[in-house]
Amino acid sequence: MKYLTRTIWVLSLVSLCTDIASEMLYPVMPLYLRSIGFTAVVIGLLEGLAEATAGLSKGYFGQRSDQTGKRIPFIRLGYGLSAISKPMLAAFAYPLWIFFARTIERLGKGIRTGAGDALLSDQATPATKGRVFGFHRSMDTTGAVIGPLLALAWLYYNPGRYRWLFIISFVPGVLAILLTYLLKKEQPKPAQTKKPGTSFFSFLSYIKKAPGPTGSSSSASGSSPSPTARTSFSSSAPNSPA
Fold it and tell me: How big is the CA angle at 150 (ends 106 and 141), to the nearest 5 degrees?
């Protein structure tokens, strides 16, 4: 277990607390939304917008983290937004406010994901990378188990009191934010040269740079990459969790 550094432990505990907070709400979210007048169609639109925000923002903020050479500020901001969005959902029942609060929560996910994975990768060696990410994922999954159990216990003794559940979930969210302050100060890293006019969708340019059938190097010539290129790519591709 020597490969589990302080940074890995802190990031894993932060993920545990955040997942407890999030998973306390996900099972009851449709019930709560229906209770305040949301139809099934509107709930579907809400979740679609929220997940699209998370998916698209991961690429952009991951690129920004690389450009600035910083990880912890993105991690802290991302977890902070996810935490404050929980009580926001219970504050008002207006549809636009619910859309705003839910989108803020998923934006936090997008901001922190790339920087968090990069920081974990920096803490691992090629020999321990699988174990490091596996441990982190196991802590994340543990939170996903504890959260619904806590929500079930609360609703068993307090049926129908959904709004209080949103407020209670703020507690592990705040704990996650506080834990990020235990992360060791980052060693200064050279920031990448910032290209002017970086857009929210600029990460799509990665497709053109990638070797293989979809990459520019192979599509331009109409032939597959050389054996040397394939070997180089397969040996240098980073391992990432599912």
Answer: 55
